[in-house]
Specification:
By secondary structure, the protein is α+β, with helices and mostly antiparallel strands. The chain is 52% helix and 13% strand. It is built from three helices and three strands. It has a three-stranded mixed sheet with strand order 1-3-2. Helix 2 crosses helix 3. The longest helix is centred in the last third of the chain and has 28 residues. The N and C termini lie far apart (40 Å). The mean pLDDT is 86.
Length: 111
């Protein structure tokens, strides 16, 4: 398996809506909150910086979209099970939060 690089792009809400409208035509994307999207064809993860208002939200959205990218990279095409991707990204995010806490405690104690 060849694992090609994936890009991450930070976009505004207007840019995200324009991207969605161009790639996935439907009546209107204006009433939908899109935090992130993974585009397999270009190997790009787009993160909406307008909708992800905190660092924690942005991290969680990145990890969620990374889950989609990992599935695509391993040949899982089509619609992904969002519940599975959300659960996996939640575990990854909790790991990152825990790791940061452990590192911070280690730095504070001089370990």
């Amino acid at each position: 398996m060849v694992n090609r690089k994936w890009a991450v792009k930070l976009v505004t809400n207007a840019q995200m809506l324009a991207l969605m409208a161009s790639r996935y035509p439907k009546e209107s994307w204006n009433d939908v909150d899109i935090l992130g999207v993974t585009v397999r064809a270009t190997r790009t993860i787009y993160l909406n910086t307008t909708m992800n208002t905190t660092t924690e939200e942005l991290e969680h959205t990145f990890l969620h979209e990374l889950g989609h990218a990992m599935l695509y990279a391993n040949g899982v095409l089509g619609e992904h099970n969002e519940e599975l991707v959300e659960r996996l990204s939640g575990f990854l995010h909790q790991y990152e939060i825990t790791k940061r806490g452990e590192l911070n405690r280690g730095l504070e104690s001089g370990a």
